[in-house]
UniProtKB/TrEMBL annotation:
Keywords: DNA integration, DNA recombination
Entry annotated with the keyword Transcription regulation: no
Domain Tyr recombinase stretches: 223-409
GO molecular function terms noted in the UniProt entry: DNA binding
GO biological process, one term: DNA integration
Name this polypeptide is given: Integrase family protein
Classification via SUPFAM superfamilies: DNA breaking-rejoining enzymes (SSF56349)
PANTHER family with a match to the protein in the record: PHAGE INTEGRASE-RELATED (PTHR30349), TYROSINE RECOMBINASE XERD (PTHR30349:SF90)
Pfam family, one: Phage_integrase
């Protein structure tokens, strides 16, 4: 047996152990192992070491397999995307074990590309260390910086940035925001302004052009946030509670957390097993925006929902996050936005179609309104919601419309008198 064969057998054995540890079902394990073994034979025929594999090698493999599929079946796969996913999933798992990070970061193709890549790394570090921004905020600002650097289909480079003009900024904004709402335009403009200011402060532009990045004006309290009515929340909780499947138990516990405490979706998905103090009937929340921590009472109804999920719905897993995916690999949700789909699905199943946004944040707004109606102080509501300033909590005052009617001014009759 050659050394290459021994290496491949070791890799496949490690892959099998990994799939078993991640609790993939037997059918999926066998599928992934078969595809991985076939890919290794493909690399052998091309005399490519597995550690030297690149994304282009997977593309070449898929082309060969697609041709073979068409020869044998006489037609193409019904869903090309699903067919590709059934092949690449096992290969990606194999290469992560063999190489580590996969897919690898693309290699810069030019001097300008290398400069832009280094610049973004330094910008991200500046946002984290000097501005103290949360990870999700940093990711959003970095994404906008990368779009700007690669606008017009080419990398900017040091010389282009040094001679950047207001016209360049206007052209980029026009290409990005022409079909977006004001709120989205504001986010893009603020992201670009932050990056342009950083370029000036680090000496990469000759003039401070950040003041020329025009941000759309958003008037305070000009719109009313989306919120669910108490009847809507009762209906979706009742509907979800009837689903005793593992997914149903998980979704019900998530909805109970959202509706009872009004915490952010990101704070729910980051909740860990050690954050629950079962003896003390309390739990700890790390607020995603402020970085602070709150201790909240674990109400019996919420505790029962969590216990029901942990005992009967949560898959066996080594991860510490309480809420995990329902399919292997059993890991925690990537971010709070991952809850949007299950929440929307549960609302639709309950026959609820709210006006405006129908994601997890609607429960947060609804909880704030219910506390306002119960005459809880704005300070106490802000502490529960994890707000740093009272101004953030004041936004929810707009939702208490029946209270606002009591202080509304009479509008004079503007009709023309005969």
């Amino acid at each position: 047996m050659s050394d290459q064969q021994t290496t491949h057998e070791t890799l496949l054995s490690n892959l099998e152990q990994h799939l078993v540890a991640e609790r993939y079902c037997v059918h999926i394990r066998n599928r992934y192992l078969a595809v991985a073994a076939n890919f290794l034979r493909f690399l052998d025929r091309r005399r490519i070491c597995v550690e030297a594999s690149r994304p282009k090698d997977i593309s070449a493999y898929l082309r060969c397999e697609l041709q073979r599929f068409r020869r044998h079946r006489g037609h193409s796969p019904i869903s090309l995307r699903s067919w590709e996913a059934s092949h690449t999933s096992g290969i990606h798992q194999l290469l992560r074990l063999a190489i580590g990070k996969w897919p690898p970061d693309p290699l810069p193709s030019s001097v300008n590309a290398r400069f832009d890549r280094t610049l973004c790394m330094e910008y991200g570090e500046w946002l984290r260390e000097w501005r103290g921004l949360a990870a999700e905020t940093v990711d959003g600002l970095l994404a906008e910086a990368r779009r700007f650097l690669c606008s017009n289909g080419r990398c900017k480079g040091a010389e282009t940035l040094m001679h950047m003009t207001v016209a360049d900024i206007d052209a980029y904004l026009q290409s990005r925001v022409s079909s977006l709402r004001r709120a989205s335009r504001k986010g893009i403009a603020l992201g670009l302004r932050s990056f342009v200011r950083y370029l000036y402060e680090t000496g990469r532009t000759g003039h401070d052009l950040s003041r020329f990045v025009i941000v759309p004006r958003m008037y305070a309290y000009e719109s009313i946030p989306s919120a669910l009515r108490p009847a809507d929340i009762s209906a979706v909780l009742s509907s979800t509670r009837q689903d005793r499947s593992p997914i149903g138990l998980r979704d019900y516990a998530i909805l109970m957390m959202l509706s009872t405490y009004g915490i952010r979706a990101g704070e729910v998905v980051r909740l860990r097993l050690e954050d629950i103090d079962w003896r003390g009937d309390r739990f700890y929340i790390r607020h995603t925006k402020t970085g602070s921590q709150s201790v909240l009472p674990l109400l019996p109804s919420v505790g029962d929902a969590l216990l029901d999920y942990l005992r009967r719905g949560r898959p066996a897993s080594d991860v510490r996050e309480i809420f995990v995916r329902a399919r292997a690999p059993y890991r925690g949700f990537r971010s709070g936005s991952s809850l949007y789909t299950p929440v929307r699905r549960r609302l639709e199943a309950a026959g609820i179609h709210p006006v405006g946004k129908c994601g997890p944040h609607a429960f947060r707004h609804a909880r704030a309104v219910s506390l306002l109606r119960a005459e809880v102080s704005v300070k106490a509501i802000g502490d529960l919601l994890g707000h740093r300033s009272a101004g953030s909590t004041a936004v929810y005052l707009k939702l208490a419309t029946e209270h606002l009617r009591g202080v509304a001014l009479e509008v004079p009759n503007m009709e023309k008198q005969p």
